[in-house]
């Protein structure tokens, strides 16, 4: 062997190949372990589903789909929106009180109005609204549960508010 | 008759098997006592020298030992519960009811498991409080404090993963609330800082990885079951071994 030479020696080459093999095996295994934990098929309730035609929901709030699909359907003067029945504090299910026109969460007392704005309690953000669209064939509302509107609220004297006009946009609002 | 017993006893203690197990006899000499201690796997965990003051009850409160005792109790009762409990969302709750109402001594073993779990969290805190108050975390025992913090975390996660297994309303909502924190992880959680900007969604973030879905369900139950019964206890045993080995190497702290 020529010691003064700066060429890669046989020893260096095999050291490089050896360590490269070990490290790439470890790295590949780590990636494999990581990816393994993300299931490709879910046996959960459907996350994209139909809830009926807009005409079925009169002005105000409907709790019809809360138990089965974890959503509220609300209608105001200009259209329909769908809110997700998950409290933004720690994920419990708030209750709707028709007499007070408020949502109240039984866990830690967060209070929301019918638009999802926070009126009180520990909730840090407003209720999620799910993406909605109309099925062109049967005219039913299709809800995409995992596509959620989550605007940054403004802190006011009355709680955390979001400008309603900025919220009533596609795909989170159905003009009727 | 006593003559016969003496002869049997003499014969037993003279066999090769007996001598292989009881190696040093009763001879009360300093050398023999040291040999007995050094060659015994349990005794040798104790430091070579221990000050009289530092093994007084009111110095240690025996809280480290109490924690180990509870860990052993939890392992034994937990193994027993595994014979009747199946982590399937359709029957887990019924299995717990069977254990409580139908299985002989089932309610005893489950209650001991539950109470020991609460007790272990308590004794770990008291043990660490004692170590802190007596300054036993200072050099040369700093590394063992670090191992202790890991063991504290493992205790809490073990307690939390066991919480889901009864699959009742309390378990479901406690874990729903508890895992919501995972969604707030910076970068990797959909609700954490920069999560959304990095493309995190409900169905690909770190909470999804923990739950095995977008909501607490069958995948979550089996994940927590495997973590609770296999992964975390094994990791805890590894760190316990390191913990005791460090106690032996560093010696007991205590007044001079």
Helix content, binned percent of chain A: 10-25%
Summarize the main sheet of chain B: none
Count of DSSP E strands of chain B?
A: 0
| Low-pLDDT segments, ≥5 res of chain A | none
CA gyration radius of chain B, whole angstroms? 24 Å
Encode the helix/strand succession of chain A as letters: HEEHEEEEEEEEEEHE
Give a short account of the largest sheet of chain A: 7 strands, antiparallel
The helix-and-strand class of chain A reads alpha+beta
CATH topology of the largest domain in chain B, what is it called?
A: Cytochrome Bc1 Complex, Chain C
CATH superfamily of the largest domain in chain A: Rieske [2Fe-2S] iron-sulphur domain
Defining traits:
heterodimer; A: 176 residues; alpha+beta; Rieske Iron-sulfur Protein; 2 domains; 7-stranded antiparallel beta sheet; 4-stranded antiparallel beta sheet; 3 helices; elongated; B: 256 residues; mainly alpha; Cytochrome Bc1 Complex, Chain C; 65% helix; globular
Short description:
The complex is a heterodimer of chains A (176) and B (256). Chain A folds into 2 domains: 1-43; 48-167, Rieske [2Fe-2S] iron-sulphur domain (Rieske Iron-sulfur Protein), CATH 2.102.10.
Detailed description of the structure:
Helix content of chain A is 20%, strand content 29%. Chain A has 176 residues and is α+β, with helices and mostly antiparallel strands. In chain A, strands 1, 2, 3, 4, 9, 10 and 13 form a seven-stranded antiparallel β-sheet that branches. A four-stranded antiparallel β-sheet of chain A has the order 5-6-7-8, with no helix packed on it. In chain A, a hairpin with a 4-residue loop joins strand 5 (95-97) and strand 6. The radius of gyration of chain A is 26 Å and the shape is elongated. Chain B has 256 residues and is mostly helical. Chain B contains eleven helices and no strands. In chain B, helix 8 (142-164) crosses helix 9. The interface between A and B is medium-sized, with 15 and 18 residues.
């Amino acid at each position: 062997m020529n010691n003064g030479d700066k060429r890669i020696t046989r020893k260096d080459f095999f050291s490089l190949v050896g360590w490269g093999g070990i490290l790439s095996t470890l790295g590949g295994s780590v990636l494999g372990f990581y990816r393994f934990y993300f299931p490709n098929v879910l046996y959960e309730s459907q996350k994209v589903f139909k809830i009926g035609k807009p005409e079925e929901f009169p002005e105000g709030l409907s709790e019809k789909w809360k138990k089965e699909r974890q959503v509220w359907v609300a209608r105001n003067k200009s259209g329909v929106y769908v809110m997700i029945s998950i409290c933004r504090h720690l994920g419990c299910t708030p209750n709707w009180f028709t007499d007070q026109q408020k949502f109240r969460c039984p866990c830690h007392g967060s209070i929301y109005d019918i638009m999802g704005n926070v009126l009180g309690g520990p909730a840090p953000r407003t209720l999620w609204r799910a993406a909605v669209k109309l099925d062109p064939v049967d005219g039913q509302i299709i809800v995409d549960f995992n596509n959620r509107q989550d605007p940054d609220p403004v802190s006011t004297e009355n709680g955390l508010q979001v400008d309603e006009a900025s919220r009533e946009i596609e795909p989170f609002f159905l003009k009727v | 008759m006593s003559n016969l017993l003496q002869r049997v006893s003499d014969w037993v203690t003279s066999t090769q098997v007996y001598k292989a197990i009881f190696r040093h006899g009763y001879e009360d000499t300093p050398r023999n006592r040291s040999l007995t201690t050094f060659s015994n796997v349990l005794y040798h965990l104790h430091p070579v020298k221990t000050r009289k003051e530092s093994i007084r009850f009111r110095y240690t409160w025996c809280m480290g030992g109490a924690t180990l005792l509870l860990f052993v109790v939890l392992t034994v009762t937990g193994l027993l519960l595994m014979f009747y409990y199946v982590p399937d969302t359709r029957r887990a709750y019924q299995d717990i009811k069977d254990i409580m109402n139908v299985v002989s001594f089932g309610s005893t073993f489950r209650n001991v498991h539950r109470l020991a779990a609460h007790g272990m969290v308590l004794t770990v805190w008291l043990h660490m409080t004692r170590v802190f108050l007596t300054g036993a975390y200072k050099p040369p025992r700093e590394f063992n404090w670090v191992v202790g913090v890991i063991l504290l975390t493992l205790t809490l996660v073990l307690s939390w993963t066991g919480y889901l297994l009864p699959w009742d309303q309390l378990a479901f909502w406690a874990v729903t609330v508890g895992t919501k924190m995972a969604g707030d992880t910076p970068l990797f959680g959909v609700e954490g800082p920069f999560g959304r900007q990095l493309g995190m969604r409900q169905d690909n973030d770190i909470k999804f990885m923990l739950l095995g879905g977008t909501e607490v369900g069958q995948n979550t139950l089996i994940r927590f079951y495997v973590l609770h019964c296999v992964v975390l206890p094994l990791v805890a045993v590894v760190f316990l071994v390191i913990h005791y080995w460090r106690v032996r190497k560093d010696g007991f702290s205590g007044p001079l």
